Amino acid sequence: QSPGPKTNQWTKVTIKPKVDSDINSCLSESDASTRCMDENNYDRERCSSYSLKYKNYQRF
């Protein structure tokens, strides 16, 4: 088996392995954007500010 995402057998939720913040300096912005999307049923308009912050941070 590959060390990819794991699936919880009861809820069928995919759990992605966390990336070390040393490797991904945008980790907090990425987590905030993902959390917003999860909480708002993947409505991009409601999470546009988080997505924009993440996109801008990736440029550096």
From TrEMBL:
The keyword Transmembrane does not apply. One of its GO terms (cellular component) is mitochondrial intermembrane space. It comes from the Eukaryota. One of its GO terms (biological process) is mitochondrial respiratory chain complex assembly. The keyword Mitochondrion applies. Keywords: Disulfide bond, Mitochondrion. It is found in: Mitochondrion intermembrane space. InterPro entries: COX23 (IPR051040), Cys_alpha_HP_mot_SF (IPR009069). Belongs to the CHCHD7 family. This is Coiled-coil-helix-coiled-coil-helix domain-containing protein 7. It comes from Sciurus vulgaris (Eurasian red squirrel).
